[in-house]
Structures are given as structure tokens and as C-alpha cells.
Amino acid sequence: MPSSTSSSRRLTASDRPGVAQPVPVRDIPAHRWGTVLVCALVLAALLIGAWECHWRKFGAYPGYRDDAMMWARQRLRIDAGEGDATVLVGSSRTFFDVQLPVWKELSGRAPIQLALDGTSPTTPLEDLADDPKFKGRVLVGVAPDLFFTGYEFMGGNFRNYRKHSPSDWVGKWLSMHFVEPYLAFYDPDFALFTVIKRQDWPLRSGMHGGTQVRKLTQLGPDRNNTMWTKLVTDPQYRALARRIWDEDFHDPPPSAAELLEKKKTLYLQIARNAAAVARLRARGVTVVYVREPSTGNYVDYETREFPRQAAWDQLMAHVKVPGIYYDDYPQLRSDRYELPEWSHMTQASAERYTRALYAILQQQFPPDDGSRW
Hints:
By secondary structure, the protein is an alpha/beta fold. Helix content is about 45%, strand content about 5%. The chain has a domain at about 80-160 and about 215-365: 3-Layer(aba) Sandwich (Rossmann fold), CATH 3.40.50.
């Protein structure tokens, strides 16, 4: 007689050779599903509305997301026939401090903005150097701690910009037309899991915490970037932004091996730029470098870690193109502008800075082909 265990074993397809596995049938409860759907939609709308109200009260307002697709839209303008344009490559200071509407007013044509937060401009510059369709002008922004280390926080934005799928483009189009212009909370800094992650959680023994950079920017559909007004109007938020920068300014003294590696990296970045500039100049492309202003603890850190003589001056000696160092021009000096968190300008300051910078470029370093910057 079979045991109770064997008799209660669930039969499978292997127990019934040649017999199809029966399709399970599940009874659907008798509910008013239309009402359930309406209630679910209302609840979702209430939750979204509450999240939106929370961030609006915090000071946020709708803007565009600076993701890989946004960057690709601008870079592919060169492929689409704008190879004679002025292109801006750099890090966040170039992104914040050069205002495209002001530039367009002065030049008659807005530049293509390819600067990226927290990212060295060297790889995008090399990409332009390797693109025979590009024959315009390049302004290269230099933030020493990013430029001379080759750091690429947003490097993924430019590595595969020609490989986006049709669904990527459709998704970005839908987002830019139906989501980003209307929802203030649709910003990476306000994502629920980002908010949860940055809470003051206890750390395990041996771990060291670090604060992620908070929202600083407000982006337009053409990648014109301005400082978020909360940094100007909210002293506590401004102090938070400064504290986050300051976390990186107190590393212990490097060892001899670390100093040697740092020097090798610096000269590698200079060599990469020199090679890219040589290729661009061979096509008649005008290239100018600019060291944008910084203040406070940030400029103290940059001066200590990347002294002008050892970094900027070496770069200029190797690339053999003009360079604009902000402290050499009274109209560009940092004391003329407002940089609330030491590194980026308010919109009003950035507009004045753009006018001053453009005048220097056009008067002292006009393009070789007689065009306007």
C-alpha cells in the first residue's frame, strides 16, 4: 500500500507521459473592477500631488533633466549640419557660467553646450577632434580638480551618444513635452530612493560617509543652465552646498607614490589635450581654453592641489593655443561676481560674465576664418 506521503505527492507532467499539462484555472473574484481602477488612479494622483506639493514648498519648480539623451541631442546637431558652430566643452562652471541667450544676442547664434557636471572635457574634446564634420570653434573650460585628474562623473553621457535606440528618443521626446515642463519633483535629487539614501543612517564600523552633491541647477530645453534660486535665497541650503564641497578639501597628505601617480595623471591629461588640439588646429578649428572663477574654500583647495605654475601654465605650454585665466582680466575676476557656493555663478552674474568673456574672445582671440564666436 502506498504511503500517505507518496499518495499526496503532486503529480507533474513527467507522471503523465504523452498527456498535456492541464492549464490552471483561477477564479476571478466578483468585484466592481471599474470602481477599483478609479480608486487606484485617484490614490496615485493624490500621492503624486502630495509629493509635488512637498517639493514646490521646498522651492523647486519644473525644469528639464540633464541625462544622456539631452546631451546627445546637442552633440548630434553637428552631425545634422551644424559643424561650423561654436561648441562649449567643460565641467559645471562652463555649464553654469556661460549663458546661451546672452551669447546668441552677442554673436547672432547660440553655441552648442556640451559641458557636463563633474566631468573633465577631455574625452568630448577628443571626440570633436576625431569628427571631420566639425570645423567650428571650441571653448574649453578648465576646472582644475576635474580637468587635471580626468574625472568623468557623467562620462556615460558621451560614450554611446550615437547608439541610442528609437525607443530612447521617443521616451525623451515624451518626457520633454509631457512630464519635465510640468512636474517639479521629476528631478534626480527628489527621487524617493535618493531621499531615503541621504538620511542620516548609522554607519558600520570602518565605513566613512560622504554627502552627495545636492541640486544646484535649473536646466532649459536647449541645455542652457542656470543656478537654482534656492542657493541664492536660502542661507541654510547655501551653507549645505558649501559643506558638501568642503568634505573633499581635507584629505590627508598624499604619500610619495600617490604624488607621483597624481603627476603622471596630470601630464597624461595635458598630453591628451595637446594631441586633440593639434588635430583640431590641422582642420582650421579655433580653440581657446578658459579657467573660470572660483572663490572661498574651493579656490583655496584648487590653489593648493593644482598650483597655476604646475597645472595651468603647463597646459598652456603644451596645447599652444590661447588661454584665458580669470585672474588675469579685471572684468573676469571673481570679486566682480556672486558665487554663492564658491564654484558657480548666479544667473545675473553669469549673464554679465558671458558678456565680458565673449568680448575678450571676439576682440583678442577672433576665429581664424573671420567668423564670430
